[in-house]
């Protein structure tokens, strides 16, 4: 995994023992974690006039959507595509509300090309809905009842999400927001709340199509960390339509860091502060009271955020609210004995998210297949199915005539952190060889042709992002953990809020941004204020 991050492009306030980060100042909000969710939450709250500090352990923001540089090449660390930049999409809404320009981006068409390795033509997820309909009819004859059912569920889900519901509800106000967003179509689809995408196949009479099932398993694993049998039907029906207009998947110019840069600009414009190199290590409820709060709680207790800043110097921040934009598995270490036992047991009971092995390579573009798409998914046995992202000519990721290639595969995370010394190096070398074999077989690029090649494991990802064990996603969109059954942004501890890929509606930059908006609305409502993003 990269050890030297790309230089930060924006000026930030001085960090070491800066007077504004000392405990003598009581902030309205401290946001912990400078990924897309944390940046979004901090910018929204700063726009509402709250005093906000965003604490990020790394020397740059972005988290899983960050970037790093190797000589002339820029690599996206984790996320490589964006949803929600279309008119009415969550990123477009947020940038318009925050008053900043969105990053330059091009719609992906096709959004992805999927090779099932069965000797049949690859499946192209065309942006045009009619072209995609013809494609899937060719690839999966007789499957239209399944896609029609998914489309009906997606339409209901999309209109529901646009009304900014709160899920799962944990207060009367939360419940009112949820009920206000419901329409008859949502009440009808709620009958499938416990169903999986595999259940949709059975209901539509398409369960016998093994090729369709394999395609769904591969695609859903990307977006929900679960195959069709483990992905909630209401979630899967929507992610399976993300590549088509009027929605779409987008390729950012420059790098994925452009999304963070726009959010940083909004945060700074509205008076918020980004503190890079500040790792939060503890969260405590102070004994003193924090002054004026809501009418119901005019003197709320303060939170104290302690941690380590640049040069390993300690810092402490006092604030009335804390928004944690980290994986929920981080809470046990942050809260210590202050974490309620039932809450601890619930989070400990969740299955581990996946880790990833990620190959970062650069190659002469002429060595790639003609008209190589930007994103490919390849069914591959060992170490697993590959998801490839290939830079576009002139997109800022590689010199003219060259391309960056990122190939990722899911892997259990914890075993990689248990390996030591030579055992780790041997396992890493073996994984590198297997991924390069897959690239040679499917792209025609031999192991000796790469101008740059390196492999990241969950150990490197843990170092880069600070995520426990190098987990690359949230809790997974299983029916038992999706929507009303998921982890709430409102925690059992007053003034402590969660957002990110483990909070509704799930993973990806669009999902975590929606979770940040939901948490901010709840936080502000507790102060008697109403946040609306048109």
As for the number of domains, it is: 3
CATH superfamily of the largest domain: FAD/NAD(P)-binding domain
Mean pLDDT: 92
The percent of residues in helical segments reads: 25-40%
CATH architecture of the largest domain: 3-Layer(bba) Sandwich
Please specify the SSE layout and strand pairing.
Elements: E1 26-32, H1 36-47, E2 52-56, E3 67-70, E4 73-76, E5 82-83, H2 90-98, E6 105-107, E7 113-115, E8 123-124, H3 129-139, H4 144-162, H5 172-181, H6 184-189, H7 197-203, H8 210-224, H9 233-239, E9 249-252, H10 257-269, E10 273-276, E11 279-289, E12 301-308, E13 314-324, H11 331-335, H12 341-348, E14 355-364, E15 375-378, E16 386-390, E17 402-411, H13 414-418, H14 421-443, E18 452-456, H15 458-465, E19 496-498, H16 508-525
Parallel strand pairs: 1-2, 1-13, 2-10, 7-15, 13-19
Antiparallel strand pairs: 3-4, 5-9, 6-9, 7-8, 11-12, 12-13, 14-17, 14-18, 15-16, 16-17
Give an overview in words.
The protein is an alpha/beta fold and 534 residues long. The chain has helices at residues 36-47, 90-98, 129-139, 144-162, 172-181, 184-189, 197-203, 210-224, 233-239, 257-269, 331-335, 341-348, 414-418, 421-443, 458-465, 508-525; strands at residues 26-32, 52-56, 67-70, 73-76, 82-83, 105-107, 113-115, 123-124, 249-252, 273-276, 279-289, 301-308, 314-324, 355-364, 375-378, 386-390, 402-411, 452-456, 496-498. Strands 1, 2, 10, 11, 12, 13 and 19 form a 7-stranded mixed β-sheet that branches. A 7-stranded mixed β-sheet has the order 8-7-15-16-17-14-18, with helices on both faces.
